[in-house]
Task: structure prediction
Amino acid sequence: MPTTFKSAVTNYLKATPLSRGTQAEYRTTLRKWTDWGGGVSIERLGRKQIREFLDWVYEQAVAEQGTNPGRTTNKAREQLRAVLSWAWDQELIEAPPRFPKARQQRDVAGRHYLTKAEINALYFATYRMPHPRGWDSPFPIGHYWRCALVLFFNYGMDTGTVWGSTPEHEPILWRHVSWSRQSPDCQTKEQSRWGWLYYRRVKTGKAFHRPLNRVVHAHLKSIAPSIAQGEEAVFLGGSSRPNSRFQELCTLAGIQPKKNPETGKSEAWELKDLRKTCATYYDAQMPESAIEILGHSVGGLTYRHYAHRAPLAYRAIMTLPQPSAFKALLQGHDGRCPCCRRPFLRD
Result:
């Protein structure tokens, strides 16, 4: 029996622990869908119908003299994606349809994440990072930072998890990296051909066993010593103040400081902004997945104790679109631009 969009939204709100205000926003989008005249079942819903609906939402917002019609349209777009992604996870549809691109909008709350172009610039700038005094590691410092950027983007780790900035932090050691298909966590049934990574969150102490995707595997292999000692730290070059080094990297990459939306003043980017960047791109690719990837606390008895969330995290990590700079190592172009093969400038 065909599933109506109204039925899908109703079941989604029952199954997902959302706040009362967020649920009201979903019902507003459902009302707009009804006013638009959407009678297509979600099994037959395609990109054409979605584009027509979003165009109608935009035109209505303009006709009502809305102050930010692009943001209104994008909010309806993301809610539609969340419902269809949930329907796919529940096997109500074979695959989620392709969505049209988001419209230009005025960022009311300010932008607290890095774009993929800025991430590419950071990655390329690591080739020009100067070595600290007394540097005697087998790889340049930029090599470790490139790998760290990849892990920040894919897992949204805390700074202390990567570098162990203080004695209380538990940094990633080589014994935490497994190259086998089977997860070290016996409760995880999925297998990863690239291996697994174990780490613990600084704030909550919660432990994670995450699969390596192809990009993460290639970068970890590139800094792996020939004979790795289990208690050796994976990442070097963070120093006791990794945020200061990250801000120097932002200067090398030519990235402008972010602006505080309340005061209008410029503020330096910090490594915690890479965690926000990770959440942004995971939710854009697979709505609701950032909650599990970042290890956020969530409400709802069913979600906390009974929902099996490992398959969601596994699928999200394996399908997350990567910045183009991350693929240079996979294609054998380390040290050269992946599009034009031009060597990067080095100090």
The chain has two domains: 5-89, 116-327. DSSP finds 13 helices and five strands in the chain. The longest strand covers residues 196-200. Residues 51 and 100 are 6 Å apart (CA to CA).
